[in-house]
Amino acid sequence: MSFIHFSGRFSTGVEGGNTGSSNAPVVTECAPGQEWTFETPYFSGNLKAVSRACRSCGESSNVHVVREADGQFIFALFSGFMANRRELSENLAAVGEAAILSQLWLRCGSEALKALDGAFAAVIVDSRHESVCLVRDCYGQAPLFRSVEYSVDGECTRFAVATRPMLPDGRVPEAASMTVSELTSALDPRGVDCFFAYNYFIPPLTVFRGCRAFMGGEIWKAKASGDSFTGEWNFTEDRLPFPWSFEGVGASEHEEHITSKSICDELKDILGAASAQAADLNVCAFCGRNFGESAVLLSGGIDSTAIAVSVAEKRLVNRSFSLSFPGSVFDEADKFIALISALNMESIVCNMSPDVMDCLPAVLEQMGHPVGDASFLAMAEAGKAAASSGIAQLLTGDGGDELAGGYSRMEGLGKGLPFNVYLRRLFLVPPTARYALYSDQFRNELMILEDLELPCASMGNSSEHSDDPDRACIIDLLTLMPGNNGPKTLLMLAMNNVTPAAPLMSAPVARFLTSLPSRWRNSGSESKAILREFIRSSDVLRQGRSAPGIDLSRQTKRMLTVPVGEWYSGPFREQISQWISSGDSLIEETIFRCGTLDKTFMKHLETGETRVFRAILAMEVFMRILTGREPHVPFR
């Protein structure tokens, strides 16, 4: 089980439709953590940052080749993990994710992809049909990007794919590899505007021109055209089936027979099975040994509490890992300490300080684009601290907010709030305000976003999903999840060879949660009603001990919030002011008007609103990394 960064290009000009043994794939393997290369007659490239080879047997399950007697082959490249790996492995007699994928493909072709559950980006090269297939998991947890260039007569002249955004020429940029002018030309104004509009990039938009992110569940099939492969490709698109429905199955006919106990009992069984499946991923498929310890990542919120209860009920994992921000209003130590005590779990608590800002450049290099969400820093530090404690896997509560309607901005939906008002709540910076901040040159290149223009707009507004809270959940699943929340956990933990597992996002749990009548997700008085009721009904909590005055089912949402706003106003205030006064800002040279940094920082000091300044700073640091301007965090 491993996440790897990979990049590759479709080959061109290969003669002959039958590849034969002389054109068989070649994979050059190096030590774990080093770069591998792979070459096939149709697709070649490299694997970087191999994050998970077994320490006991040295095996890694990222690449597998099926070779047939006539010289034909199936080459599978897999980054991420399969939640249902054990089941598929037993059915196929295949070991490791890439081997499972290639065997599935051999038997079922592209239909094989529908059997996968997990977080992954994958490439399958099939010489029998002169085709390449690319796929991203349905939640979009594993990133995948494409860059296509066409000639004036519509011929594809270049097709590149990578797990990080690519420059207009199809290359993944390296640190200190560009001039400011080159970077300015490469930035996609539409993607940049999307980032400042919503605080993340909504697929397919990215930071660079000509590069597009795969949507969650998106499949691209490329087939060589003509009788023999000459470098011309025909592309078709498809999509994995989503594991959620939001159809309220049985709501009209059988809702009166649904009881709190029956739902909680069913969720206990389904979530328990998903948690057991998740814990099993920490076992090497080749030698059967654990990669390391497993623990539950406790944030103090409802979602991670539900996971902790589930694993405690099944006695799957007895360790927890938490982050604390001493002295901050965002610190939730009292909540997770109460839960740890009630569940009688072993605990590791890591205290965070302003020094966490030092990891921002590494976070942006791992992602390949700016991130405005401060919890990326928390997740990166969680991976680092967990790895140093011998933890190789963290079970998280990811997916609970999107599947069970946990975001506070949903307040009022279903109770009279117009849906278009809700859509405007999604903006970090509204259109008019963004327009006023941009430089004349940048503004001239940009068609400003006037309203929510999302790939899921038609689904969110369709009569098929007439329940407003559920429509909001669908929008989050198709935009926020693949654009921010999904890759965040997977990539940040992978920086330190720690693998996440999210039982709430397993297909059986997602189907169950979204098939319930909507009142079980948002009751009107509380969000995530079903998860709160599940916690209240827990036998293990009733038998345990909780801190006086703390109701573990009524926590408010914090999302591992890093108190960067408090640090900007406190220990970093003087340094930030000096940096702004120095005029050493790339972002004011390229995107924003002069004075924007000072204006947004002063607004933060006056109002406590830090998200806009945080997003601007992330873009600034990202640009400094690519152009080699030091220091990467300018006020540190």
From TrEMBL:
Top-level EC class: ligase
GO cellular component: cytosol
EC number: 6.3.5.4
Pathway(s) this gene product operates in, as recorded in its UniProt entry: Amino-acid biosynthesis; L-asparagine biosynthesis; L-asparagine from L-aspartate (L-Gln route): step 1/1
Domain Asparagine synthetase, first and last residues per copy: 294-620
Biological-process GO terms, alphabetical: asparagine biosynthetic process
Catalytic activity as recorded in UniProt: L-aspartate + L-glutamine + ATP + H2O = L-asparagine + L-glutamate + AMP + diphosphate + H(+)
UniProt domain Glutamine amidotransferase type-2: residue ranges: 70-149
A GO molecular-function descriptor: asparagine synthase (glutamine-hydrolyzing) activity
Domain of life, per lineage: Bacteria
PANTHER family: ASPARAGINE SYNTHETASE, ASPARAGINE SYNTHETASE (GLUTAMINE-HYDROLYZING)
Name of the molecule in the record: asparagine synthase (glutamine-hydrolyzing)
Lineage: Bacteria, Candidatus Walliibacteriota
